[in-house]
Sequence to fold (345 residues):
Amino acid sequence: MNKPLVTIGIPVYNVEAYIEKCLASALEQTYESLELLIVDDCGSDNSIQIVEDFKEKHSRGGQIRIVRHVHNKGLGEARNTAIANAKGKYIYFLDSDDYIEKDTIKLMVEEAEQNLADAVFASSRKIVYGSNVEMPTFVYSKKEVIKGEDAFPRYLCQDLRWHIGINAWNILFSLEFLHANNLLFAARKDEDALFLSDFYSEIKCAVLLPNVTYNYILRPGSIMGNQARDHIPTAEIRERFLTDSRMTKRCARLRSRSFYDAHCARVMKHKFRAVCVALRHRHRFTEPLSSSEIREELRHPASWNDIIRFKRYRLFHILFYLLSKMPPKLFVGISYLVGKAIRWV
Fold:
């Protein structure tokens, strides 16, 4: 097989406790035609010095290339920098606190080349940092090649469950696919969900693999998430709401597609989860979050006329559409009760 160059894009920001294992796993790949594109996102610790040491001392250190931001831009923009600077035929995003198995790139490139795939998805495991404890993991049950016009979006929209992971890591993307569809990250909060919402509809061929190739590290305190904090910056939830509003506006581009009804339903499910997060932690926000702001999060992407014509999830859409039109306080009260009933609050 001709060995196309693969860019492993690794954003780096304050990860000195994790970066060494991440770099070692990338440089120990059995696939050799690699470049490690490190995006220095202006952290304050020793992370980049560790990268520099690998570049100088590791036997494959010449495969490391560093691109530096002038100031911190966040994970999404760091990945955009990787896309803009990648020299490979394919790009693979690896978070700098995680690590990959030795055959990860080899396995995924072989599938991409054989099937002319826009994207190859593999399975992952979650590991608690400092232990061998594994948390619930996203594993594809079997190998699947999904090919054809709208075949992949129809697969994803067959129901409201998640059939692929909501993440950008552990996916081998064709760089030509990303460039041709102008696919970039557009948020600092919940950026993976927005990116997924943008790219899945454009895929003409995807490969799903049951092989576990990626180790996602749960850092101390991350298992509890918001529960571990007494005070949560209100800006965080507002930033997520802003990301979701972008996702809502982008639904319109799919209006003529056969899966538009299911896509809108998936977006509404995602947004209602955000509403429930806001209601669950509202008392711990650092400044008040108004009921009107929470109601605005549930703005429906489709018109009433579109909803009436939907073939799937029509009642689901009607209920959420009407809920979003209620007075803010009534909206919050009913949303809270629904969230409690489904155990999202």
Notes: The mean pLDDT is 94.
